[in-house]
Recover the amino acids of this structure.
């Protein structure tokens, strides 16, 4: 069951219609950088990040589901990527090194997080002074779609407002995704 879900996350993440290459290009990670993916799922993006940052960089793959983390750990091992560190999160309790991250990446996960302003504010503890937060989240779907019915989306205006309340400013936004909005904060 866990493998089924992780594979489904990865199939969706890697589907060209969801423009994974353009997302990777927009983030433009450099060798040696550190990035945490909160809500890593099947790890599609984290494993691609791991290749980009190389041996001197670090990827922290964070999830509340231990089965998903195990899948990501095994996938990294199979690909010979030893810079992927999986870390279990209990709701809003994150175990990450302080002031160490160039980026925090959250794709399709903010709709799962209650009390987001407090959550976002706490993320500051883990970012370097010039660190950034990248958020990709579903736009509102038509009522009869899965995300419309189950509320698996957060409007971009709400994310921007909550991030501002948490002490961040919008740096950039990209408009090439059909189903999601994509914003970067500092
Ligand atoms: C829709 S999946 C997205 C997976 C991945 N980011 C991607 O784009 O393919 C959402 C993931 O967030 C995780 N998640 C849910 N609540 C979380 C929380 N509070 N902290 C960390 N991860 C969480 C889920 O277990 C799941 O793996």
């Amino acid at each position: 069951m866990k493998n089924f879900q992780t594979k489904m996350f990865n199939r969706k993440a890697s589907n060209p219609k969801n423009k994974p290459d353009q997302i990777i290009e927009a983030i433009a990670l450099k060798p040696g950088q550190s990035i945490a993916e909160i809500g890593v799922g099947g790890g599609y993006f984290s494993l691609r990040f791991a290749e980009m940052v190389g041996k001197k960089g670090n990827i922290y793959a964070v999830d509340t589901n231990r089965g998903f983390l195990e899948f990501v750990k095994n996938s990294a091992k199979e690909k010979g990527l030893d810079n992927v560190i999986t870390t279990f999160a209990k709701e809003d309790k994150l175990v990450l090194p302080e002031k160490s991250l160039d980026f925090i990446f959250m794709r399709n996960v903010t709709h799962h997080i209650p009390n987001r302003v407090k959550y976002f504010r706490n993320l500051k503890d883990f970012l370097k002074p010039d660190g950034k937060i990248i958020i990709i989240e579903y736009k509102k779907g038509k009522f009869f779609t899965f995300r419309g019915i189950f509320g698996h989306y957060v409007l971009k205006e709400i994310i921007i407002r909550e991030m501002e309340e948490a002490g961040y400013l919008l740096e950039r936004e990209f408009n090439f995704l059909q189903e999601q909005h994509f914003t970067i904060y500092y």
